[in-house]
């Protein structure tokens, strides 16, 4: 298991150093990577995913339209931000550890920055199929809905590993892990993204969740594990 936030409060100097080394630097690397992949798919390989998008269109039914609308709406900017704020507040109140509580907020902030700027640079057109939602001004690659929901809910899943009740812990982790997948499928189903857009969104969101989770990690635990491994 990747070591998450430590139990003791950080000094102000530690916060700045951790933000630079474990948030800003990884975010920059992620941005370069996702922009490079975007250009590779759109301008070099010029991958054609129309057949897949059309296949999802042919699967549409009134019931699935309604379900996908709800799932997609749960991943829009306002809902994701509100959910994050509520969870951060509750965790902060219960744990008294602000550096642990801000994990999902950190993940979402990094995802938003990477998504908004990379989508402008790549500038991919949305699928040429009937779209069930109004297209936002951002381009298709990567999927913002998928990226944001993945960043936030994978963060929730990582935080849930510290829940002591086994049944509750497993339930929360499974639900939080499955939700981004449902969002990704709904965005392709509704004609808003190519399949590779949502795959990229899942990758960006997961990376951002890990950035948030390890931004102030327990280095003592990491060092202990490395010593055990070296001894073995």
Low-confidence stretches: 222-232
Number of strands: 0
H/I helix tally: 10
The fraction of residues assigned to DSSP E strands is under 5%
Q: What is the general shape?
A: globular
How would you summarize this macromolecular structure in one to three sentences?
The chain is 75% helix and 0% strand.
What can you see in these coordinates?
With 232 residues, the protein is mainly α. Helices cover 75% and strands 0% of the residues.
Descriptive terms for the model:
232 residues; mainly alpha; 10 helices; 75% helix; 0% strand; globular; disordered C terminus
Summarize the topology:
Elements: H1 12-45, H2 50-58, H3 62-74, H4 77-95, H5 98-101, H6 103-122, H7 144-160, H8 166-189, H9 195-214, H10 219-231
Helix pairs in contact: 1-6, 1-9, 3-8, 4-6, 6-7, 6-9, 7-8, 7-9, 8-9
